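Sync notes, pocket subgroup
Present: LS, DG
LS reminded everyone that the earlier model was apo-only. Rerun requested with alpha-D-galactopyranose included. Inputs:
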Amino acid sequence: MNTRQKLPAIILAMMLTALACSPARALDNGLARTPPMGWNSWNTFHCDVSAALVEATADAMVASGMQAAGYTYVNIDDCWLLKQRGPHGELVPDPAKFPQGIKAVADYVHRKGLKLGIYESAGTTTCAGYPGSLGHEKQDAAQFARWGVDYLKYDNCGDHLGKTYPQRYAAMRDALAATGRPIVYSICEWGNESPWRWAPAIGNLWRTTQDITPRWHTDQPDNHYPQGILDILDQQAALSHASHPGAWNDPDMLEVGNGYLTDDEDRAHFSLWALLNAPLIAGNDLRHMSNDVRAILTNREVIAVDQDWGGRQGYRVRRDGDTDIWAKPMSDGSVAVILLNRGRGPVKITTTAREIGVKAAGTYTVRNLWKHSQASSDGRIEANVPTHAVAMFRVWPGPHPAKQKGDGSN
Ligand code: GLA
């Protein structure tokens, strides 16, 4: 080809590069139009994954009512594979953990009407030291697609071989797109390189922090492992501009039902993640959860806040010492609000419809999303909030609205 013949190809390449680098643009794969909901093995099971665990978890997701509440993805994290690639350079599922391979597990999960997720890393190894996908993107993506994988969490461990973050993550984006299979693409680089600036053009979601741990507060600096619920929350306050349908900030998987969290702390964690339009990826043992934990994970009124796009994710309205007010506009003109008590004693927290941005009206309807009760108000919104807990409301301008379809209210 001479230069004239090459010109259209060069212009096209320049346009594609500009698109890929434009932070305002979202990855256009049509997926994750609402924040993904599901489960991931890591927070509870770490490397102890198997086909039996994944299949029993899929069963539990259905039996517990989680599937009916919107949970779809059953995601295998690290350690599903052997430490060496196979003779053709392919990834090999560990036969002791996945005796029939990954496709059989995908088929099982799909028969339940659920979807399967898997894990790899944009480096030479995964974080647990298994082979990474850097330099093998096309082969690995094609293999995931053949197996019927629907979601990829793509981590940041191993040697990066001198490549930049956007280069490494875009290589897998392109490899996934080339398979033709719809695969949600979850970028996991721990907030290292301000992914909210470049990841919307590359992935459907991007981790914003170091790993979560099931503690209220760890007092670790931001870039240190591990991060408690409040530590992660405080790092989200500046990021609410970055997300939109198809492209979500990911403050990490849920710890509801895990570790040292009390029921009030679990409710606070779940409420706050919903307000942030976070992916709701449960991280507990679904096979053996208490009724309280199940009720938290399946609270449809709170889930409805997570799944609604009212123009921006939740943001912090105000912080006063140990109390926070967070709000999120909903698409029907209501506003979701959280009164958070970070501290060690109970406290009365007050805000107003005006402060959280509800359209002015003579009277307001205030619905309590945990008590499933509602009352009318002159605009004042207040609650006595116990230690390490939230009150969560949805506020409409005007009299009681018609029951919200699918919000689980009763
Ligand atoms: C990193 C990720 C975790 C998990 C582990 C697996 O730490 O951030 O979420 O995937 O790797 O090794």
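DG: The radius of gyration is 22 Å.
LS: The CA atoms of residues 137 and 172 lie 5 Å apart.
Action: DG to write up.
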